[in-house]
Amino acid sequence: MWSHNPIIGFDTETTGVDPTEARLVTASVVVVDADQITKHYWLADPEVEIPLSAQNVHGISTEKARREGRPIREVLSELAELLHFHMQQKHAIVAFNASYDLTLIESELSRHNLPTLEERLGHPISPVVDPFILDKTLDRWRRGKRTLELVAQHYGVWDDDSFHNAEADVLVTLRVLGAILRKFPDAASSSLEELMARQLETYTETANYFAKRAAERGQSYTQPVGWPVAR
Predict the structure, then answer these.
(1) Could you write out the DSSP letters of every residue in 186-204?
(2) What's residue 228's pLDDT?
(3) Which residues lie across from 71 on neighbouring strands?
(4) How, if at all, do strands 92-94 and 7-14 pair?
(5) Element (H or E) spanning 13, and its range?
(6) 121: closest CA among 79, 84, 80, 83?
(7) Is residue 191 pLDDT above 90, yes or no?
(8) All structural domains of the chain with their residue ranges
(9) Domain 2-216 architecture
(10) From the DSSP assignment, how many helices (H) and strands (E) are in the chain?
(11) 153-166: buried (b, 16+ CB within 10 Å) or exposed (e) per residue?
(12) Is the pTM of this model over 0.90?
């Protein structure tokens, strides 16, 4: 069962909301296996100004990033090497709203002339388990928003966490995943390939719904679309 192998929690904090344009500010990877939990954290100098709107979310100012952050190419190289290693081992990469974080990383790697994860793997990014999409797949008719905080509260694993801190978000995301697997044990026994297919189907249905709603209002749907990487 994939859930008995190491599980790799992943999250980023950035300069904006468009993953194709935003720059990486912090990243956290938490490796959970049977024996231990290993935490990795990076603060990068994104080489651009961090907008006040982003600073208000994650608390990292331009000055702090320049003073304490490491060069962005070094951070991206180390982060990509770690994620690539675990993907090669077929360890699940777990991220809440994974399309944002993985699209951001692929965009940043390309921007800085570094091999993307897909290029390193030689195939599309996998395996990915996204508790945001997985929750919508397994409990699709539940009403209400599904932010990380609200989903954590729904599954009873919210603990007054410090959200919009990359490491804190990873830890609560992993708790959410554990709660989902306890409630829906078939997901734990499914293959990662099956879970990837089901998550992609849910993501596509959701994106098509929002595109249709935008068209009905006479608007164009301009969000990058794709899971686990938007194009």
Answers:
(1) HHHHS-HHHHHHHHHHHHH
(2) 97
(3) 45
(4) parallel
(5) strand 7-14
(6) 84
(7) yes
(8) 2-216
(9) 2-Layer Sandwich (3.30)
(10) 10, 6
(11) ebbebbeebeebbb
(12) yes
